Amino acid sequence: MNTLRLAPSILSADFARLGEEVRAIEAAGADLVHFDVMDNHYVPNLTIGPQVCAAIRPHVTIPIDVHLMVEPVDALIPLFAKAGANLITFHPEASRHVDRTLQLIRDHGCKAGLVLNPATPLAVLDHVWDRLDIVLLMSVNPGFGGQAFIDSTIPKLRQVRQQIDAYRASTGRDIWLEVDGGVKTDNIARIVAAGADTCVAGSAVFGAPDADGGYRTVMQALRTAAQSL
Predict the structure, then answer these.
(1) 174 given a catalytic annotation
(2) Which one of 31, 180, 197, 210 is the catalytic residue?
(3) CATH assignment of 5-226?
């Protein structure tokens, strides 16, 4: 297993000082900035758009991982690519032509991925492996931070890990496997053991006060816990 990538979700950050917050998580050892985009249509919440992505881009050198929970999705992809996104993931239910949307992301210079909700079947991946750089499994139903981890994600993770490993064995190309929702120190070991190499953590990270190095402490605790099985 490669070194675990941690992607703190700014959905749980202090939006009044967002530049400071993303600088703090990079200094604390974050590998990615996870950027949750919700449209109050595909999911029942409204968050942030390309202008906020462009605003935080100069504050960090690590990649910005944009998770689009919007429908329709295609029109926003060029805007986020221009705003400085490095990875863009979307939900297959939000695209009429999943293959075309994945290629659109790549055509704009970003890594492309699909996001599967807890009840989305894995069959949606079958014919687009060559377009994928990342698969993101939701371990909560999307829309809000702070939800509890859904345990049925674990066997689903194992299945996707097997498929990714088989694909890598036949092509030599790796695909990231990311998990988002309810990731904490008490479950990250099971998540990583099941095959995740990238974990989104929102409230688990930003719930810690950073004044005393809390972000670094909690991310180190997550990495240590991930190796405990």
Answers:
(1) no
(2) 180
(3) 3.20.20.70
